[in-house]
């Protein structure tokens, strides 16, 4: 089954949790260990990628290691680099909607679109909005960060993504952020559109994940949590809070 259908079927019943693995942050062996643990704890799939430092070598090795230990979807989360692996089950085809640089909105997408189409890779189109503080993705992606209290802009970008036919809308406040996207912003976006909403950045406790779910988030992404040495307990609580 297509990854998008799997995700849609899941979120029709309950919110979903995706675990983000950033290849340069650990060895492929360690990535496989984490993925195996997250899989057993009930995560719904894996995003692989990061804003910077992803090389063809670390991406290929990490994806191969991950695929050897899980049957759940392994999805490419592209950053600024050009690395790619044919072992991905799908690609998040992200447009960074509030970037000042057309490269992140449409140009690099145009550069890869025909190739992805010819290769027959499943693509999931995503309107990607970076909210304050934005962290490294905000900086590298040259985003005009959406202010944390600017629900109108968040809703407007979401409505534009929906009208343009995108599959998902992604509210991001940056990996490693000390705060998450405000739950009230998620609420405003859910009120504005029917698109499934992905929320990521700074989610490190079950309580916070729950608030975002109550606000209407369909998919919660966590990355940094797995970088701690003792991540299992925390990750397990978050996954349980999200998936019920
Ligand atoms: C994915 O940027 C997030 O949307 C991941 O953020 O690393 O803070 O969990 P964390």
Characteristics:
globular, 9 helices, about 45% helix, alpha/beta, binds SN-glycerol-1-phosphate, about 240 residues, TIM Barrel
- Overall spatial form: globular
Q: Total strand count, please? A: 8
| Relevant CATH superfamily | FMN-linked oxidoreductases
* Main sheet attributes: strand count, strand direction, barrel closure: 8 strands, parallel, barrel
User: What is the count of helical runs?
Assistant: 9
CATH class: Alpha Beta
Question: What can you see in these coordinates?
Answer:
The chain is of the alpha/beta class and about 240 residues long. It has a single domain, classed as TIM Barrel (Alpha-Beta Barrel), CATH 3.20.20.390. Helix content is about 45%, strand content about 15%. The protein is built from nine helices and eight strands. Strands 1-2-3-4-5-6-7-8 form an eight-stranded parallel β-barrel, surrounded by eight helices. Helix 6 runs parallel beside helix 7. The longest helix is centred in the middle third of the chain and has 18 residues. It is globular and about 45 Å long. The site of SN-glycerol-1-phosphate has 15 residues, from strand 8.
């Amino acid at each position: 089954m297509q990854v998008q259908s799997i995700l849609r079927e899941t979120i029709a019943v309950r919110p979903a949790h995706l675990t983000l693995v950033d290849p340069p942050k650990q060895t492929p062996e360690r990535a496989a260990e984490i993925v195996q643990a997250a899989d057993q704890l009930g995560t719904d799939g894996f995003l692989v990628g990061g804003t910077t430092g992803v090389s063809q070598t670390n991406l290929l090795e990490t994806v191969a290691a991950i695929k050897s230990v899980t049957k759940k979807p392994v999805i490419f989360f592209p950053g600024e680099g050009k690395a790619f692996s044919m072992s991905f089950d799908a690609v998040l085809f992200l447009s960074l909607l509030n970037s000042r640089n057309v490269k992140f909105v449409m140009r690099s997408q145009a550069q890869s679109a025909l190739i992805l189409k010819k290769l027959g890779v499943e693509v999931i189109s995503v309107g990607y909005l970076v909210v304050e503080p934005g962290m490294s993705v905000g900086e590298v992606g040259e985003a005009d960060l959406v202010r944390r209290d600017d629900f109108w802009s968040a809703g407007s970008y979401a409505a534009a993504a929906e009208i343009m036919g995108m599959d998902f809308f992604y509210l991001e406040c940056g990996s490693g952020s000390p705060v998450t996207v405000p739950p009230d912003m998620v609420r405003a976006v859910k009120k504005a559109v029917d698109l499934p909403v992905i929320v990521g950045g700074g989610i490190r406790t079950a309580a916070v994940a729950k608030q975002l779910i109550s606000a209407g988030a369909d998919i919660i992404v966590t990355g940094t949590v797995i970088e701690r040495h003792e991540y299992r307990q925390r990750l397990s609580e978050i996954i349980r809070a999200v998936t019920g």
